[in-house]
Every structure is written in C-alpha cells, then in structure tokens.
Amino acid sequence: MAIAPRSHTGTLIRGALLWLLTLGLAGCALTMGATSTPGGAAKPLPHFDHIVIVVEENHSYADITSATDASYLASLIQQGAVFTDAHGVTHPSQPNYLALFAGSTFGIASDACPQQLAGPNLASELIAHGMTFTGYSESMLAAGYMGCYDDTADQLYARKHNPWVDFANVPAASNQPFSNFPMDFGQLPSVAFVVPNQVHDMHSGSIADADSWLRQNMDAYAQWAPTHNSLLIVTWDEDDGSDANHIPTLFVGAHVQPGKYAETINHYDVLRTVEALEGVSFTNEAAHATAIADIWQG
C-alpha cells in the first residue's frame, strides 16, 4: 500500500504546537522561579502580634560571629535565622537608623542634632493602620524627651540613635525611656524599637557588656516570643567603618526556621519585611526593597 506524502501544513501545525508547549513550560519555570528568594523557597509571610527590634552599634559580622565573649548572642544565633550577607546602607550612625525606621537617609550624612523630618515612617504607617509603635531608649531622661543627649558626663543617651523623635507625625508618647519597657510582654506595642545606651550597644562599651545587657534585658522576651506569636530582631546600625558595611542581623521567635541565610539584605529589606509582616504600606526605599520570605516555617 502506498504511503501518502507528509502534509507540509500538518508539519507546520505540529511544529507550532511544539513551540507553544516549550514556551509554556519555560513560562511556568519563570513563574515558579519568581516565588523564590536567593536564600531558598519563599513561604507565606506570617503576621505577628509583637515585633521587637534591638539595634546595636559599630561591629561587623565577623566581629560578632567570632567573638569569644558573646555567649548570649551565640545562643540567639543558634535559635534563629542569621543573615550572613546583611549590610548597613551608609556611615555614620544616624542615617542608618533613619533607613531602618523610615526607609530613607533623607540626605543626612552626619550625626548632627537635631533633625526635623517629615514624611511616612514605620510608626506613622502602623498608627494609620490601627496598630501601635513605641521606641524605647535606654538612659533617655523622660518620655517624649527631645534633647540631643542626656545630662550626664558620659552622654549615654544620644538622639542620633533615636529616629522616631525626628518626625512630627510620631506622637511624643511613642518616645519612651527603656525603663518603661513592659514586664508583661502582652502589653507591648505592635512594633517596638529598643536602643541600649552607648555603653550597652557596643558604641562605647565592649561586646561583652552588650552581650550581658541583652541577656539580662531581652532574654525573657526572646524565650516568650516563640509561643506568643512574636518576633525579636537584633541588628547593627553599621559595621566598624568599612566600605563593605557587613553587619550581623538575626531573627528569633515564632514561625522562624533557624539556620544561616545567604541572601544579601540591608536596612531597607528589614524595614520592608517588618511592614509586610504587619500589613502596612511600604515607606520610601522600602517600597523598592525585598521582603525576607524564605526563613518562615511552612
């Protein structure tokens, strides 16, 4: 029996179908890839009842992870997610605090005081969405204090480390001394910043001093957080002055999958993550940053 000649039209149709199938599979692969982060597969973001962010000072990732006198920080690293490629955004201190709190350095390149700034920030966005914010600064003289330093010779409190006081849209009642940090953690605001004084944040004191302060003042919350839908973030404003500005950053608490994560992050990414976790609008450069999405338990 004679075999009918192959239809040129049929060959074209089959080729077109094969091309569309290949394109479709490639599109699926691209879509799947978009749900991943450099640190691994993305997972749904949880919502937290309380987030506490502690800001330390002026030490690099290597300084902290190799320290022999930071046993408490070492234990937090074991309990949580530690980012091996986290960075400050600039030097010196003040613009980094602003970046972490409001998503911009506002063109500030010094620690000059006071600053009077306007615009959206983490506190204003939380308040606009019916949530709460408080910043707790150790050695600050009183609630709502606007001065640049405390009145001691050592100037343990410094306004350059307190960005929320720079914004008129943040209520004075949100600016509290650390002595008012609640013992009942259920009374914490939705998001809190904790800024140790300049001895206890490693600025003018040792790593060991800061480590001991964290153990005494934050460990109870760190142990409470995993069973109370709460999160502790410990980060540094900047490193020891290098161009790399490589800092430690770690997350400990509910929903966190412990381990080391290699994606590159900075203060804008951390702020974007906090805003995403709480479901508020993204502020300034945080709107262009990436939320951390791979550390959460499925």
How would you characterize the overall build of this protein?
- The protein is α/β, with parallel strands linked by helices and 298 residues long.
- It has 2 domains: 1-34, no CATH class; 38-288, Alkaline Phosphatase, subunit A (3-Layer(aba) Sandwich), CATH 3.40.720.10.
- The protein is built from 7 helices and 11 strands.
- It has helices spanning 8-33, 61-65, 71-79, 93-102, 122-128, 207-224, 267-278; strands spanning 36-37, 40-41, 50-56, 81-87, 133-137, 175-177, 191-195, 230-236, 246-247, 249-253, 259-266.
- The strands form 2 sheets. Strands 3, 4, 5, 6, 7, 8, 9, 10 and 11 form a 9-stranded mixed sheet that branches. The protein has a two-stranded antiparallel ribbon with strand order 1-2.
- Helix 3 (71-79) packs parallel to helix 6 (207-224) and helix 4 packs parallel to helix 7.
- It is globular, with a radius of gyration of 24 Å.
- The chain starts with 7 loop residues before the first helix and ends in a 20-residue tail after the last helix.
- Mean pLDDT is 89; it is low at 1-38.
